[in-house]
Structures are given as C-alpha cells and as structure tokens.
Amino acid sequence: MSSFSLEINKLNALEYDLEVVLNGKFKEDECYFENERFVVVLTGVILNKKIFLESKVEQSWEEVIINLYLQKGDCFYNEFRGSFCGVFLDKMNGKWIIYQDHIGSKNVYISYLEKDSIYFTTSILDAYKTQEKKEKRERLDINAAYMLLTYGFMLEDYTLFEGVRKILPGSYVKIEGNEISNHSYFKLSNTPNNNLSEDEIIDKMDCLFKKAIKRQFEKDIEYGYKHFVALSGGLDSRMTSWVANKMGYTNQLNFTFSQSGYLDETIPKLISSDLHHEWVFKALDNGLFLKDIENTTKITGGNVIYNGLAHGLSLYKQINFESLGISHSGQLGDVIFGSYDKGIVLQTSFKNGDGAYSRRLLDKVDFKQAIKEKHNNYELFCMYQRGFNGINDGLMGIQQYTETMSPFYDVDVFKFALTIPIKYRSKQKIYKKWILTKYPEAANYIWEKTGERINSPSFFIKNKEITVNKLYRKVLIKTGIKKIGYNSKNNMNPIEYWIDKNENLRKYLNGYFIDNINFVKNSQLKTDCINQYNSGNGIEKMQVISLLCALKLFFN
Fold this sequence. Notes:
single chain, six-stranded antiparallel β-sheet, 38% helix
C-alpha cells in the first residue's frame, strides 16, 4: 500500500521533510517527482489516466500533472477519476497543496505539531505517533469517543486524538507562506432536475454506469490483472458484476463472505455459476473473525467500529492478490441510485443521531461542535457522515491489498444520480426499473433485502405496497416462528447470534472488555462504557470493544 508523510515548517514552507513509498498495484498511475520548481506526489489509481496521456505522447506522467496544474490551478486533480490523494509543491510561489479525492476514499490525516509545524500523512499510526512526541500531549478527544460509541464512526474531520484531524472529502489544504487554509473543490448537490422523463433518466443512468464500469475494468486489463469483483445477495454488487459481464469483462473472480446458508451465500453462488465466473466464499460462521480486534484497529486507528473491517480482512488474508486487480464493489449503490431519505420529498433538516448505530449516549455527543460543515439536507448529511465517514472507512481493509472502486460512486454517476428527483429514487424505484428495463435477467434472482425478486407481483393494503412473500414473512416474524436481524442466523453478520451461540467467542470478548476497561481514564466515559457493554446489543458491544482497543494501543 503506497503512502506519504510530509512535515512542513509553516513559517517557511520550503523547509520540509517528505517521505514517499510507492508500492501499490497500479504503480504507473502513481507519481513521486521533484525538480528545482515542483514536487509531485500522487498515490492511488487514476482510471482516466490514458485520456490525459493520449494527446501528450511525448510527455511523462509527472509532466502531464504539472501542466494540468499550470492550466487548471490549485484544483487540477478535480479532473481525475479514481481513488487517490496527493501532494503538490510549487516552489516558485512557496505553495503547498495536499488533497483528497472527491469522496474521501483515502484518508489523509493532519497532525498539528509544536514550533509552527504541521504534519500530513496517509498513516493513522504515524499521525498518532507525532502526537505522542509532543511535550504537552493532547490526548483522547472525549467527543470523538462518544461518536464511536453512538455513530460507530467519526463525524466530519474528527479522529480519537485531539491533535489529529482528516482532510474532508473533495477538499484540500493549502499552505502559502505561513498561512494554512482549508478549501473545498467538490461538493455533492441533490438539487433535482425535473426536465427528464423516467425513460430518459434510465438511459442516462445506464450510459454513465457503463462508462464507469469500462473505466474500472479496463484498468485491470491495462495491468494484465484478473477482475476481482464482490458479489452478495444485494443489488449493488450484483449489478457491478452483471453489467461488467454483459460488456465483455467475463474474466471475473467473484468473492463473498457471510454466514453460511444465508441469502448472501446462496444468491451469489447461483449468479456466479450462471455467469460462468470463478467464485470464492468465506464463511463467517461462529463469528471467529471478531477476535481479530487489535490487528484491525491498527488499520482504523479506532475511528470506526472494527467488525466492519474484520469480516472482510478474514477473507483477504487468505487470498493471493498477485494476479488480481481492482476490488470492484457496489459500494453505496442503494443510497446513490436510491437514497438515505425514505420519503418522496427531501427532508431539509437533520439532527444528532441520524445515521447512528446506537442512540443510548447521543446526549454526550457535542453535535453542534462536531458539525461545522454545512449540509443542505438530511440526505447529504447522511451521505457525508454515514456514507463517507462510516461505510467508506471499511475500504481501509481491502486497501491493505489492492485499490477498490465502485461504479456507483464514480463522480459522473454520483453527480447525475443525486439530481434524479427523490420521488423516483425513493425505495429504489428508479433503480429497480433500470434493472428491469436494461438487464431483466438480473432480476430473476432473489434480492436479499426483501427475500424475493424485484419483479414479484404486489398488491396494496392501506395504501402500502406489499407482496405475498413479504406478507408471509411478516406473519412468521410476528408469531416468532422466524427471526431476523443481528440476533438471528438469517443475517449476513448475525453478531448477537454468534455471541449467544459461541461460548468461546463470548468469553473472549468479555475477557477483552474486563482486561481493558481500565484504560478508560475519564470516569463518566468509563461508566458509560460499562453500562453499554453490559446492557447493549451486539453492535453496541462492538463499539465499546473498538474504543477500548484504541485506548490500549494508542493512549496507554
């Protein structure tokens, strides 16, 4: 995994210490270059790199980047598509630019040091270590600790360390002379475009989605890699794999991890077989991966609940990635072609607790202090917080092995999708219609979310649309014959079920809690952790364990 770290004396921007390691799988997309006028650092994967090089056949990649800067200015990377971050120094003007991609798929941390110095790094461990060296160490951010115990992730730019923050998605930091400033170059907007019909919307969705698929899968071919494609029982990864297959990208290795026997195993097994793909499955039975607390937390820095990465890591460490390319997913598809907002009119307000995993300690989160960025409505708040800060932090697991992309959050797909009026996106209405119109065979498989096909016949009861199967499931659940959720085997990650049924796991987690609770020095926080662990559900226990592990590893 490529990385960089940069320490700058703000009083003299040309006094700096820069360390760069480029060892990613897509080395030709990355760049580390320095001459008498510029420093260029770029890590990640640039899916549209070929377009920039086509008309500049006599120029190197670093020359193309420099010329982009000279032509476009500070935000030249807005032209890139992919997963990336980087550093740019214009020595003549004494100006540094440290930037993050459009959705923040790669974290860049800022550590504020003493003696007017500032430190940037892609490594959360390095960011923490710089704080440990300070004479007056700023320690645990109590507000951030409560974010972990409630939301399960950090809000805005927070980390658990008071002196460490993140560059926000679609943003960059500029240092000029002794001035440091934060800027946004890309912000999502969900202002609806009411000028297109449903059919026109579907055609545009399909065109952009296929363009995004081509960008991703052609990058694998460029490097001679096999396509590594996630596949679950949901619609999102299904459509990534399915559309790619229809476009001729058939050399796929699909991968799945879930409780065995659940729909997240049985559906992808059938789809991959029908598409003639190779398929690898990792059973999460008994929740044994939940013991991998500390290795996972060393990746996250404790800034997101560890179980959200640990299940994937339990598969990735078993795989030889040498011949595999980008990890293609359907990440965020249901809230991009669908929405976080469940109504047919966009909610204009949001509040503390929206998107949180637990609500029991929400009064301890200083929400007004945390939410400094303006979000126009509930959907955008949830997208930037739960989507980018929460779900996308799960990308850190696979990024230990390769790059990862989803065609749904391709910038051009993303921008268009959020302009589709919410009345079409609500409850995945336009999403399902796109599938039925363009890829009807993909609808012939059960959807894990509902337990039935998206084209199943439906009827209305009290103005609510319902299917026969859904009504039957509701009856079984109401009567207690069938269980769903984290305390049931009928779930991709039945955490409470594993803890309840696996005595060895239960003893391990309880022992870890007892052994490490005393690392919580704040008395009120300690009391709250004890209460939440002892009376909370499976996810709430994971939140407490995540915090205790971070305190043990980084604050001891």
